[in-house]
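Researcher: Next sequence.
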Amino acid sequence: MSFAVPTEHYLLLSAVLFCIGVAGVATKRNPIVVFMCIEIMLNAANLGFVALGRHFGDVGGQIYTMLIIAVAAGEVAIGLAIIVSLFRTRETIDLDEADLLKL
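Model: Next structure:
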């Protein structure tokens, strides 16, 4: 017997994860939590790409997923460097006080 999970369930899970990530980015002020929510959103997109790639029998979903994983790794490295720099200059990581780029 084959108990394959339908593609719609994967896409529904992907949409729920993406909405959780958007809600976290919109409501949280801690930059570490914001980066974690962005990672949840990227992983939701990865799940959607892989599910649709499996549904259509195409490897394009896996290729896009590898690209997103590479972008996420760069985003984490640069984001944490910005947080460390902000902490060194302002001694806080509160996003409300991060106005270094404002004129």
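Model: The helical segments are 7-27, 31-56, 60-90. The chain has a mean pLDDT of 88.
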